[in-house]
Amino acid sequence: MQVLLAEEYGFCFGVERAVELVEDALSQGARVRTLGPLIHNTQEIQRLEAHGVATIDAPADVEGEVTAVIRAHGVTPQVQRELEARASHVVDATCPFVTKVQKLAERAAAEGRDVVIVGNPDHPEMIGVVGYAPNNSYVVRDAGEVANLPALRAPLVVSQTTIKLSAFLEAAEAVRAKADSEPQIVNTICSATRDRQDAARALAGQVEAFYVIGGKHSSNSLKLLSVCKESCERSFLIETPQEIDAEDLRGVERVGVTAGASTPNWLIEQVVARLREIGEARKETADALAV
Fold first, then answer.
1. Which of 79, 108, 175, 280 is the most buried (most CB within 10 A)?
2. CA distances (Å), 185 to each of 41, 105, 137, 141, 149, in order?
C-alpha cells in the first residue's frame, strides 16, 4: 500500500509562531498561561502542558506572576485590555492573518460602514473579530443567511481565515446583490488554508482512501475533510494513529494523508508510520498465502 502525502500539510505560519512564542516564554522560566487552548490540537496542547503550560478561561483566572498568552485565534480588544491589567506580561500570539481581519473590521466600523464576516459565529476567531466592530458587524455562515441581514451601509465583506473559498465567494455575491452600493470584498482566507485545501483536492482524486489528521473541532481540519470527500468518499478525520481501522483500508492500494494547520509534524509522522505498518502487514499476509 502506497502512502502519499499532500504537497502542503500541517502547521501553518500562525500556529508555528504561537507555539514558538510559548516555548520562548518557557525557556525564560516564565509561568505560562494561555487564554483558551493555544491551538486546536489536543495532543500538542498536552505536550505543552507537560512542560508547565496551563490553560485559563478568562482574564480573571490570572494569579500571581504570570505570562499570559493570547492564542492564535485572537481576542476582543476588551479581553486584551483586561488581560494586560492582570498579567505581569502578555504575549500576543494572534495569527497575523487574523490580525488583518480585525484591523479591516475596525477601520470599516470607524468609517460608519457595516461589516459582513463569513464564518462560524461561535468560533473564537469570529468572536474576537466582532469585538473590533461590535455595533457594525454581522456574521453569516453562508449565502443563505445573507437574506436575513438588515439594510447594509457601504458594507465590507471579509471571511474567517479557515473557511472554504466557495462559501466566501457565494456569500460575497449574495451581499453584492442585496446592498444598495458596491460592497468592498476582501478575501481574508489565509494562504495556508487555501494551499492545504488545493493540495488535498489534487491528491484526493489519485487515491482510494484519505486521512486528514486534525482536531475534531478544528475548522480548517473539517474543511479539509469536506474537500477530500469531494473526490474520495472514503476519507476520514482522525486525531491519532490509534483511530485508524485497518478494515477501512481493505483493497486500498494508494492512501492519501494531509493534516490541519494545528497538527504537529511528530503526530503526522506517527500516522504515516502506522499506515505503512498496515501496508507491510498486508504484504506479509499476501506473501504467506502465496507460498
1. 108
2. 31, 12, 14, 16, 17
